[in-house]
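Known limitations

C-alpha cells in this collection are predictions and should be treated as such. Users comparing against experimental data should check residue numbering before alignment. To illustrate the layout, the record for Major facilitator superfamily (MFS) profile domain-containing protein is reproduced below. The input appears on top and the generated C-alpha cells appear beneath it.
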Amino acid sequence: MKEDIEQSENRVQEEIKAPLIIQTNKRLVTDEEQAENGCCEKKQDRCMVYLSTFVAVCGSFAFGSCVGYSSPTQSAIREDLNLSIAEFSLFGSILTFGAMIGAITSGPIADYIGRKGAMRMSSAFCVAGWLAIYFAQGALSLDIGRSATGYGMGVFSYVVPVFIAEIAPRDLRGALTTINQLMICCGVSVAFIIGTMLTWRTLALTGIIPCAILLFGLCIIPESPRWLAKIGHQKEFELALRRLRGKDVDISEEAAEIQDYIETLEKLPKVNLFDLFQRRYSSSLIVGVGLMVFQQFGGINGICFYTGSIFESSGFPSDIGTIIYAIIQVPITALGAALIDRAGRKPLLLVSGTGLVIGCMLTGISFYLKGHEIAIKAAPILAVTGILVYIGSFSVGMGAVPWVVMSEIYPINIKGTAGSLATLVNWFGAWACSYTFNFLMTWNSFGTFILYAAVNALSILFVIKIVPETKGRTLEQIQAAINAS
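Generated C-alpha cells:
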C-alpha cells in the first residue's frame, strides 16, 4: 500500500511538474520572439520619421547653397555685369539682411500656418530669388534675388530644426536635428566645389533643385503633431503621430503627455516679444540667445565668407585651401550628428569650444610670424592648420548643437517668439561678423584671431555654467527641469 501510494504521488508530481516546465519554456521563447519582433517593428516604425527629416533638411541644403554661392562666383559676376567691389559686397552681405527679416517673421509664420506651411513659403522665396539672380542684368536684380533667398534662409534656419525636434523620438532627436547643420555644410561644400566648374548663372539654377524636392516631399509627410495639438486639431494630431510612430505602436502614452503639456500651456497668457523677458522664461532665453551670440561672434562667418582671402594673405594657394575647407567640414559634421545623442550636448560644445580657441590661436600666430618675418615658410602651413582645426571644431559642435538646444528648451507657447528672437540675434551676429572682418584684418590680423579666441574661451565658461544637458529627455521633461531650476 505504501509503495502504491508513493508511486501515485510521484506520478502526480511528475504530471504537475511537466506542464510547468513546458509552459515556462514557451513563455521564454514567446518573450524572446516578441522582443525580436519589437525591434523589427521599431525600425519599420521610424521610416516616416526618417523620410520627414530628409524632406525637411532639403531646406537646410538650400540654406547652404545660398551661403556658398557668392564665394566661387565673385570674379565672374563682377566681370560679366561690371560690378564694383562695393556693389558686389552689397550683393554678398544683403543676404544676411533678408535672413534677419526672415528670422523676425519665422516664428509667427510657423505658428500661424504650420511648420510645413512655413517651409513651403520659404521654398517659394528661394526659387524666386534664384530665378531673379539667373536672369539678372544688373546690380538691382542681383540684390533683389539675393534678398529673397536670404529671407528663405532666415525662415529655414528656424523652422527646420523645430520641425525635426517636434517629430523625432527622444532617443533620435539630437542626431536628427544635427542633420540640419550637416546638410547646410553639404550645401556650402557643393556650391564651393561645383562653382569652380559651372557658370554663375547655371550655379544659381542648381539652388532650385533642393527647393523642388522639398515642395514635392511636403505633400507626403505629416505635419508636426505638437503643432496640430496646439491649434486643437485632435483628429489630425493623432493621425500624424500614428503615421510617425507606426500603425502597431501604442501612442496613447506619448499623446497623453503631449496633450497634458498643451493643456497646461493653454492656461498661460499669450506672449509677445516683451513678455519673453519675464522671470519664468529667463533661463530658456539666456541659454538660447547666449548660444547664438557665441556661435556667431566666435568668427565663423568672417572666416567662412573670406576663406580664400585668408589663405592668400597667409601665402597658401586659395583654391586648394578652399576645397580642403569644403571637404573636411562634411564628415566632421556627420561625426557630430552621430555623437550628439551618445555623448550629449554639453560635451560636444565643450570640445568644440576648445578646438575653436586652438584654431584661432594657431591662425593668429601664423599672421604674427609672417608680420614679423619669423619662420616665413612655416606661417602658411600654420594658418591652414589653424583654419582647418577651427572649421572642424565648429562643425562637430558649435555649428549644430545651439540649433538643437534652441529647438528643445523653449516652451511651446513662446517657441515662435523666442525662436524668432534667437534666430534674429544669430543673423545679426552673422552680419556684424562678416561686415567687420575685413576692417579687423586691416587693423591687425593677429589681433583679430586673438579676439575670436577670447570670445570662444568665454563660450566654454558659458556652457559649463549655464547650458543644461537635454540628452535623452522629452521636450516636456526638459521644460519641467528648466522651470524647476
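For this record: Confidence is low (pLDDT under 50) at residues 12-44. The CA atoms of residues 109 and 118 lie 6 Å apart. Please report discrepancies through the issue tracker.
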